[in-house]
Design brief:
alpha+beta, 39-stranded mixed β-sheet, 47% strand
Amino acid sequence: MKKALKISSIILIVILVVIILLPLAFKGRITRVVQDEINRNLNAVVTFKGVGVSLIRNFPDLTVNVSNLNVKGVVPFENDTLASIPALRLTVNLMSVFRGSDYEIKQIKLASPKLLFKVLADGRVNWDVMKADTTASDTVSEPSNFKALLNKIEISDGRLIYDDAEIPTYVDFNGITGVLKGDMTIDVTTLDADVVCKNIVIDYDGVRYMNNIAGEVNTKLQADITNWIFTFTDGLLKLNDLNLTADGYFAMPDDGYRMDIRFTAKENTFKSFLSLIPAIYAKDFSELKASGTMSMGGWVKGLYSDDSIPAFNVDIKVNNGAFSYPALPGNVSDVNLMANIANPDGVIDHTVVDVPKLHLKMMQNPVDATLLLKTPVSDPDINASLKGRIDLSDVSKIYPLGDKTTLSGILDADAAFAGKLSSIESGAYDKFKADGYLAISNLVYTGQEIKQPVDISKARLDFTPAYAQLTGMAVKIGKNDLSAEGKLENYLPFFMKKNGVLKGSLTTVSNFMDINSLMAGNKSSASTADTAALTVIEIPGNMDLTLNTSFGQLLYDKYDLRNVKGQVSVKDKTLHIGNLSMNTLGGTMALKGSYSTVDPAKPVVDMELNIKDMEVSKTAAAFNTMKQLAPIAEKLTGAISTTLKLKGDLKKNMMPELTSVSAYGLLLSDILKFGTTNTFSKIADALKMDKLKNPSVEKINLSFDLVNGVATVKPMDFKLASYKANFSGTTSLDKSINFILTLDIPRSEFGNKANTVLEGLVGDAAKKGVNVKLGDIVPVTLLIGGTITDPTIRTGIKTAMTDLVADVKQQALEQVEKKKEELVNKAREEANALINQADAQAAKLIADAEKQGQKLVDAAQVAAGKVRATADSTAGKLVNEGKKNGPIAEIAAKKASDKIKKEADVKANGLVGEAQKQKDAIIAKARAEADKLKQDALNKVK
């Protein structure tokens, strides 16, 4: 017995040693296989920290752990992470590892995976990373080393984002935890799916349809894995507190996704419906008292692909709903809703949104609304109304806002809209009804979500078919105030169609406006200026607005602007500034020009700036361009006036891309005083004249230009330290300088040390064969080279420096001409790129329109075929019945059947004809927009 125990102990120890050490023997092999599989199959950048193996966790199978697995795409998705999986665990059949050929995976577990599926506006997708099969058709490609014997896939705390700019749709499933179990090795199997998601967000076309919704799916799937068809019955879908049951199938054929699913609400309580409202579900939902009934159901059937959507129908009804919180005195009651969203045939334009009734009472104040929307794509046909008066102070009596939140004021609305949007677009305002108003009075809102209280004392919009009139708007946000009035045209196409352009003019007046506090999440301007970097402010392309502005004080970044007045307009992603004037930096400034974000990655500024009597050191500190090109300006004291015309690109931090900037201007000043600078210290040392260390400069009239990063100062006469002087030259982005300074210095100004220098200058001139005769005035030339921070000084008598001066001027001229040529070539390239881009966009616009129009025609032809088929069937039955009743009845039936067929033909032809008209209109509109795109590009190039 003891011997048997001893042998057993030895065997057990050996087994444990094998279990511990065996994985180490296979670790290198498995790591190589994983890397080989990635390189062979994926066109992506894949990294992982390492591969670990173990026999203990899932003995007798091998556990393979891959840590920090990341998959990044290639151009144009090189900055996107397709998959980030901190921990991936595979359970692998141990015997398959011993064989060393096919590695059989039984289970997969992913911890905190993050997946991003992205579609660009042009249809390119980031998950298309599989390498193309380049093998010839008669060649058998090398099979993968991995084989799936899956029976379980498990995910914990995952996140999946689907971002589709083509549709456009954004879906975010965050906090996914779930298990899919079943035998996945056979063609037809049953799978158990149990998945929970903590937070669901769904946006479509800029509208958020779901926000902070918790979801759960629990169902059995009959899975045809060969054909990718999944059938389910009594599947449970839970959204917050709303339970839905569903049955049907979902398939993934090559041409898209095919489905036939019916769903209905499992419970019929109004409280379940309220749980879909995030604010209500998040606040003491279990304590909420609610009454009333709700029914919800629908179906979706058909193919979802690049060219089609499935047909669908959703019905929602609420009867006599009411809710209240036990701790609050108010309630919402008499909630009645009827809504239907339907699409009969999968043509998007045939979608109908019908809300014939929405009624509720907030503390006995009734609110009523209706909506009927047809043909949303080709020509939105709307019939909508809104009427009600809400006392916002009642909200805190109905809903627990919290101790630090206050809300008061009155919202009052009575508006109605009816007609086709094309009537407005064509100017046929008599065919469209739009009247009524929306008014706000004495609205005050404070809360933790905002750091500055909002106070709207009044604002009113009056609606007509042509425009919405804004009157008397007065708003305060913290210390910021703004009043506005004006007219907004084309407001319905703007809000209902992506290509609608909001037009109009507004007059805005403010005594104080701190833009920093509004842009930085309501932080104070002091902290913002210190910590927040500027970013590109993108100008919208769907606006054509003119603003007549007047600001008493305007704070932006580190600029304090006073008495700001002028006109600003927004059009085609460009901000146009006309005669904008202001007081700042101790003087006045007038500005006109444009700021364009046609390419948001590279904003373009084209400005003319007129400055009068500004403090030069403050100006240099405020304007980064001057600081980079002339840092010496910060050493100056005194006032300057200047005219500057500037054009160039901005970087993402809104600072100038100086290599692209071209400018010219004029700088004037009566007197400027220099502080200590390297340049003048070296000039003073070279001439042994301390007077030039901190000189004053008088009667400045300096003209300059800036081309591709090189600033050229044209010859200028002035007074330097009371000496007659002339100055010219260039400075570049690398801070290199190449200046010529001539001084007429009275002979009497030279002291003992300076006389020694002067004698040296005369001697140098004599060596060059120049006979210098000194008079009362000594003309000295200084060549200033090197860099701004480390200048070099060469001095000489003016007549002896002629050749050197000529060389310096020639070098400067050659440098400027070279930069100008580079700038011209760059401008040509950008112009061609802009035109090519516009041509491509125009071609896509027309192609999309033709595709959309043809879909309408195809759908109409299908509908027409159904009309004719129904008529043929009805007519056939009628004739057969007539035959049974004798010859006379047969003749009558034949006439009736002919009439039915004729009427069907007329109806069918009408359907196709109307669709063809819609197609022609869509294409014509697209061609007009395409022509405008190309013309706008040409205008920009000019």
